[in-house]
Structures are given as structure tokens and as C-alpha cells.
Amino acid sequence: MTTRTIALVFHRLRPNAVGLARDVAAWAHQAGCNVVCDESDVDAIAQGAHSHVTASSSFRDADLLVSVGGDGTMLRAVHSLNGTPVPVMGVNVGLLGYLTNVEPEMALGALDQWLRGTEGSAFHYDDRMMLRVLIQNGSTKQSWLALNEVVLEKQQSGHTVRLGVDIDGTHFVTYSADGLIIATPTGSTAYALSARGPVLSPRLNALLMTPVSPHMMFDRSLVLDPREEVVIEVLGQRPVEIAIDGVAVHTLLEGDRVSVLAATERARLLRFNDNRFHQILRSKFGLADR
Questions:
Q1: Hey, which of 94, 149, 213, 238 would disulfide with 178, CB 3.0 to 4.6 Å?
Q2: Which of 38, 41, 71, 256 is catalytic?
């Protein structure tokens, strides 16, 4: 039997996450698996008996990536793969945890189920749509992947920004707003939800465009086919911050453009039960019948 490799990403500022990551590493070592984590995380986890954890700059060859934390840690885990379809198991040591579906006390049992079981009976893989975000700043181009969303938002308090939007090469509208969110169905429960966007099933393939506090009559979200490319241009002299999955990556100036389309890459999440998305939503929002 080929030796499995388990990669670890965890929230270093939460002692319970660090402790559980050490437990996962110890379990994996005892089960005969290789254990790797990012070089910056080795000192936080590799202590005493856990010194068998190996530093690695890439998780592309891992058989499983275990994320111990909240949704932010899950997003960091997915980004560390850069589009490689390594399955990610999220252990919820956070608050809401839409993306994480394994509770801490079940983590080691779930890992054993994955190691010894078969896909389709013991566990399932959920492939999630991602966004390919292309930023053009003059002659400079940058490319990013997003699982949740790309957000273009004002930098200056008390001012709106103007964002011209083209869809499939045709001008749609110029938004005067605090910002604009382009989200995946997975990301519809993130920032887009707080901007009163709709909740989409993650089984869908779609782009969700939601303005943030628009100063105009048209204030609705728009659900687009994944084959429709959205191009956003910064109009006017006010700077715009662009964030990918909650992390600010660049400041946009007048004339800078951002292209957003469905990525060919997918994020693969590991699931151990038959809970559908609407059941998870019901649980997270406390939608019990009265």
C-alpha cells in the first residue's frame, strides 16, 4: 500500500487549533502517513514527539489537506493548493464554519474513516466552483484564484467609487457604490450575504454580482452564467481596494481593470455525511421550526 501524505494547515493563534493539529499529526504518524506543513507552521506544531512533521513549500503531492480552524483557515488551505484538486477536510475550531464540516471531537475518527474507507460510501468529495481573477494595472497583469469572492471596495471613508461593468464584452452598468462583490455559490454565504445577496446552492455553477451600498436605483444582485465574463474598470480618481477571499491584494487606480470568470480549477472538499447545504444553512442560522 502506498504511503499517504497528509498536509496540515491550522490557526496558529488559537491554542485549541494548535493542540488538535498536533493530535492529527500524531495520529497520522501512528497510521504510517507522512505529515507535512508549511515552513512557517513547523515551529508551532513540531515539539517533542511531534518532531516528525516535515516542512514543505507545496502541498500539491499530498493525498489530503487537513484544515484546523474556521472558514478563514479553510480559505488559506485552499489557496495553498493553487488549484490542485487535493481534497481538503475542514475541522471547525471557529465560529460559524460554513466550509468546515467536521467537529473537533470527530476529527480523528473522520481521518480513520477516510484512510480505511472508500469514496461514495465512507466519505464524499464535493467539488466547488472557483473564480479566476485577472488584474490589469497598466502593463502589469496578475492572476488569482478565489473560492468565495473577489471584492472591489472604496478606500476612503465617506465616499463612493465608480465601477464600470461589462458582461461578455458589452457594457452593463456603471455602479456608484461603496463596492462590488463577485462571488461563487460557495461565497454567497460570505460577504455577499451581509450585502443582502441571495444564498445559492454550492452545487450551482454561477457568478453572483452584488453591489455594496449602491447609490443608484438598481441595487439588486445579478446571477450570471459561469461562461459570462465580468470586466470591471475603475472610473474616477478615487482608489479602490481589491480583496480575494478576504485578503487585500492590490490598490486599483483610475483605468485599472479586473476580469472575473469561472476558473477551470475546482476546490475539492471532503464530506462524511449526507447533510445537504440547506440543512447546514438551517443549522448555522438556527432555523428550527417553532
A1: 213
A2: 71
In terms of domains, do 164 and 232 share one? yes
Amino acid 251: pLDDT: 95
In angstroms, the CA 32 to CA 116 distance is 12
Structural domain contains residue 289: no
| pLDDT attached to residue 183 | 98
Q: Mind listing the pLDDT tens digit for each residue in 16-72?
A: 999 999 999 999 999 999 999 998 888 888 765 456 788 998 999 999 999 999 999
How far is 280 from 287, CA to CA, in rounded Å? 10
Residues 61-106: pLDDT tens digits? Answer: 999 999 999 999 999 999 999 999 999 999 999 777 778 889 999 9
Q: Which amino acid is at 18?
A: V
Which has the higher per-residue pLDDT, 110 or 288? 110
Of 171, 151, 175, which is closest to residue 240 (Cα–Cα)? 151
- Look up 225 and say whether it is catalytic: no
pLDDT at 47: 64
Count of domains observed in the chain? 2
CATH number, domain with residue 63: 3.40.50.10330
Q: Which domain holds residue 74?
A: 5-123+272-284
206 lies in some domain:
yes
Q: How many CB atoms lie within 10 A of CB 153?
A: 18
Q: Is 290 part of a structural domain of the chain?
A: no
The CATH number of whichever domain residue 146 belongs to comes to 2.60.200.30
